[in-house]
């Protein structure tokens, strides 16, 4: 019972976050995309309802992200790194993310019919371009951080029991950070595939199964990263 209560408490905390709700609704969005693809020929009524669910979930996520570009702007303001190249990478990554979230507002309004729906493809292109641009640099930053962690993990020799304990704690922390970085890379690569499908549609990236699996990988990696410790 204790473990069950603990899980429920963590779920409540998770869903109290904007990112937590986003990952849950993103799961709905891409599960419904896969259901729509699977049911198209055999069960058209189910496919139609799944498509409506996918559309509603997609628009809901855009509403949840209102003002999110300000977070990107704040991150851009505070972009830092131990060296100028890392600072530059951070600036480029956060700039792309800010453009993505900013134009996502206009895309949402166009798809909802508030703005001219004919403008939606343009907003989608600019938003997806900013998104993919930012993700490339976020992936590079995470790979650099993972490499740095691996180097640190191999360093130092232990001389006393106390140093051994400190080193063990350090190894655990580095491993935990590496897992989080790998989850971030998985989410960013998956979202990059989705963005490429908007920028330059192609048979692989634009396929419903590719988009569905990519969306779920991104959602569940984000779920893992945002789940309370």
UniProtKB/TrEMBL annotation:
GO MF: identical protein binding
Where in or outside the cell? Peroxisome membrane
**Gene Ontology biological process:** peroxisome fission; regulation of peroxisome size
Q: What is this protein called?
A: Peroxisomal membrane protein 11-4
For this chain, the family text in UniProt reads: Belongs to the peroxin-11 family.
Q: How does it sit in the membrane?
A: Multi-pass membrane protein
Which InterPro entries does the record associate with it?
PEX11
Purpose of the protein? Involved in peroxisomal proliferation.
Calcium found in the keyword field: no
Query: Is Transmembrane helix among this UniProt entry's keywords?
Result: yes
Record's Gene Ontology CC terms? peroxisomal membrane
Q: Where is the major localization of this protein?
A: membrane
TM spans, by residue? 86-103, 123-145, 179-197, 203-224
UniProtKB keywords:
Membrane, Peroxisome, Peroxisome biogenesis, Transmembrane, Transmembrane helix
């Amino acid at each position: 019972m204790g473990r069950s209560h603990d899980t429920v408490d963590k779920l409540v905390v998770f869903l109290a976050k904007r990112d937590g709700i986003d990952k849950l609704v993103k799961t709905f969005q891409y599960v419904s995309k896969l259901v729509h693809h699977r049911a198209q020929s055999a069960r058209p009524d189910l496919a139609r309802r799944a498509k409506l669910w996918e559309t509603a979930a997609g628009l809901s996520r855009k509403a949840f992200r209102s003002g999110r570009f300000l977070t990107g702007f704040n991150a851009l303001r505070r972009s830092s790194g131990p060296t100028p190249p890392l600072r530059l990478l951070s600036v480029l990554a956060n700039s792309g993310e800010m453009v993505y979230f900013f134009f996502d507002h206009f895309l949402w309004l166009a798809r909802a019919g508030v703005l001219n729906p004919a403008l939606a493809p343009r907003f989608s292109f600019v938003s997806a371009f900013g998104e993919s641009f930012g993700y490339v640099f976020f992936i590079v930053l995470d790979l650099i951080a993972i490499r740095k962690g691996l180097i640190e993990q191999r360093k130092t020799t232990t001389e006393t029991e106390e140093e051994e304990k400190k080193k063990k704690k350090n190894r655990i922390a580095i491993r935990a950070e590496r897992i989080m970085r790998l989850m971030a890379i998985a989410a960013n690569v998956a979202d990059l595939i989705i963005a490429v499908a908007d920028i330059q549609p192609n048979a692989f990236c634009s396929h419903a199964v590719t988009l569905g699996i990519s969306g779920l990988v991104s959602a569940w990696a984000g779920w893992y990263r945002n789940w309370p410790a």
